[in-house]
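Feature request, filed as a ticket because there's no other form

It would be nice if the structure record came with a short human-readable summary line next to the tokens. Right now we just get the raw output. Example of a typical job, pasted below so the devs can see what we mean:
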Amino acid sequence: MRSTLLRGLALILGFGLAMQGCKEEKFIPDVTNIDVNVKIQRFEKDLFTLDTARLDEGIASLRAKYPEFFDDVFLRITRDMSDPDTSTAHAMRKILNSPSMIKLQDSVMLAFPDLSPYEKDLEQAFKYQKYYLPESTIPFVVSYVSEFGLGSFTYGDSLLGVGLDFFLGSNFPGYDPTYFPDYIKRTMTKEYMVPKMIEAQASNLAGPVHGDRLLDYMIANGKMLYIKSLMLPYLQDSIIMEYNAAHLEWVENNEFETWTHFLKEELLYSTRMDDIQKLIKPSPVAPGGMPQEAPGRIANWMGWQIIKSYMKRNETATLQDLLNEKDSQRILDKAKYKPGR
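Raw output as currently delivered:
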């Protein structure tokens, strides 16, 4: 399986709503003449309409319609690992007869009877992708229910998926707090569905981390956030970062102090995964050694600022030029990143 499978986890409806939160003037290209059509193929609907008396025929039809997704993604994330050698038909029968899956499917269909509004938002985002990266591929988009096995993901360049069961609302009773604490559930809403899909797509476009230092992760995640912001140009930075208003205000007001902390503690070149994970992953508490008000993923936010500085100082550089540059240190040097006090 390609490593891009899990590159992503998981857009405010109506770009105009989010526009109110934009603070700075930025270039937003006219993409009205770029033709993009998105149809979210609803695997979960096709799955739960299978005739169990003719299951082999149904499996063949799913494989034909979802050739990559069915075998390489869905079966892998839903297969019972206590019985990994079970036949596909047996595994599918267990899913279709599972009371918890049936109940979850009912909740998803009630919450998402129609995905056309999300298709429109995705079309707009992909138009921006085509503007900045004309040779890039618009993926086949599929929705599914996996009983919380996988949120948003990409598979190569050809497939973008979204687990609808991850967006049933922060108060959905089926979200076990052991696995979905409040700081995670806060973004498990309809409003975050398209942003999380675009984050998975942006991560795929940005490519893998080149190196094992914190700086390498910062630059890779900074590229992802930069692409995400280009594809969702009217979206508030707080939604791009999945921060609340207080967290965004803190990182903006403490940019100099944060950068100074990174340099003083020699974090940029740390290869200690414990340091790295605390600074790039969601967290309910501040990363080690930082004020309690500091949010998780703060290194990603700093990486985004570095990328923005790099692109501003290299005015002739295109997005493709940025993606072609794999050397994190060279990007940092050319960015001449120096946050003001």
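Something like this underneath would help us a lot:
Strands lie at 41-42, 140-144, 153-155, 159-163.
Residues 3-197 form one domain.
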